[in-house]
Amino acid sequence: MKVAVTSTGPKLDDPIGTRPEKCSYWLFVDPVTMEYEAMPNPLRSVGGPAAGEFLAQVLQEYRVQFILAGGSGCTQLKELGGNGLRVLLGMTGSVRETVEKFNRSPFPEGRDSW
Predict the structure, then answer these.
(1) Is the pTM of this model over 0.70?
(2) Could you report the per-residue pLDDT of 14-35, keeping only the tens digit for each?
(3) Which CATH number fits the domain 2-104, given the four candidates 3.90.180.10, 3.30.420.130, 3.40.30.10, 3.30.70.20?
């Protein structure tokens, strides 16, 4: 399993992105090993509904089950949440801190934020 995390930069110690549709990067992190890959945010480079569709394909390729994001989310994230992905919003701190918090906490069933 991997988690996708919005980020302001390509590293684990970069701050989490507060606006998923405008963050600079998405990091795909294995929460057990903390191995990751960074990708420039497709929601910034591809406009309209195509951006959400492209992001959904990427998340599926990475076998992402959870999205961890700052802020309150955007239309594309809400739609992805309806497709079986769990979206946790309102995250703060670095990407590393967010994934560590995710590892320590049971997933809050039925909620879309912590």
Answers:
(1) yes
(2) 999 887 778 899 999 999 999 9
(3) 3.30.420.130
